[in-house]
Design a protein that fits this description.
By secondary structure, the protein is mainly α. The chain has 14 helices and 2 strands, in the order H-H-H-H-H-H-H-E-E-H-H-H-H-H-H-H. It has a two-stranded antiparallel ribbon.
């Protein structure tokens, strides 16, 4: 049965049967993003944060599937920059805890988007302190530092561009250009707080920055190793395995063609409709699962 049919069937279930299914799905997804061993719980949205409920960022960051797909695409873009990759290679435990790294990124996005201002400012300060300690030397002898404004700009623009691309593909294909520009203007606040420069404030500026930084990008043995670990990480549960596998394929599909070619992961043209239809079906199912149950 196609994924879209599955989601339609779930929505039509009687409430008595639907409620436990919704709760199970929501719990499985919450476990992906929150480390129960560390006592983490989903971030409760607060209106007194950096943005507020009317922000485009609240809308874009609220869809689980498009954020997961965008997160994978953003990470694959980021690792093409040798200095960004070196920071991960030299200073993180990605080899044994790739899921933990993805969780920390997701929590940062959640806290800066939906947390109160004090929560957002605290996590921004913590990330700045971490960046100050991440420095080293590239294989070719050049020094690098995670606090470099140019590197922070690359991390920011790849994340923001990928999250927005995921939203447009799987939630709002006809998103107004003005809203797209508002999203980049809002996210610029986070980028500036971390020390990024330059910081795009519109989709056009983001596109120009991506293009300007392409000559700095490389694909080498380190890139291949990080990508291999990313795509071979164990799912947090058996139930999450199909979701994870499809999300990874959708992340590749979301990449610009030039980035797919650099990774050697171009999506077969005939497979694209299947990946997109399956991901859209999962997106609809997860939205249904996270809707507030009546009564």
């Amino acid at each position: 049965m196609p994924a879209g049919s599955v989601s339609s069937s779930l929505v039509s279930l009687p409430q008595a049967f639907a409620r436990p299914i919704r709760q199970r799905i929501a719990a499985e997804v919450a476990a992906i993003f929150n480390d129960r061993a560390r006592g983490e719980k989903p971030v409760v949205p607060r209106p007194d944060g950096l943005f507020g409920p009317r922000a485009v960022a609240w809308r874009v960051h609220g869809d689980v599937t498009s954020m997961m797909v965008g997160g994978i695409a953003g990470l694959m873009l980021q690792m093409l920059h040798p200095a960004v990759l070196a920071g991960v290679w030299d200073h993180s435990n990605f080899r044994t805890d790739m899921l933990g790294r993805l969780r920390r990124t997701a929590r940062f996005i959640a806290l800066t988007t939906y947390g109160g201002r004090a929560e957002a400012e605290a996590v921004l300060a913590r990330i700045r302190r971490i960046h100050e300690q991440v420095r080293g030397v590239l294989p070719d002898g050049r020094p690098y530092a995670a606090s470099d404004p140019n590197l922070l700009a690359w991390v920011h623009v790849t994340e923001a561009t990928s999250f927005l691309a995921g939203w447009i593909r799987y939630v709002e294909p006809r998103m107004a250009g003005a809203d797209q520009d508002r999203y980049f203007a809002e996210m610029a606040q986070v980028a500036r707080a971390l020390g990024a420069d330059p910081v795009p404030r519109s989709r056009a500026e983001a596109g120009r920055l991506l293009q300007a930084m392409r000559p700095q990008l490389r694909y080498d043995a380190r890139t291949a190793e990080v990508a291999r670990i990313l795509f071979n990480q164990k799912a947090p549960s058996l139930a999450a395995e199909p979701l994870q596998a499809l999300t990874m394929q959708a992340g590749i599909d979301l990449l610009p063609g030039w980035a797919q070619r650099m990774h050697g992961m171009e999506s077969p043209f005939g497979a694209r409709p299947l990946v997109r239809a399956g991901t859209l079906g999962i997106a609809r199912t997860l939205r249904w699962a996270f809707e507030r149950s009546p009564g």
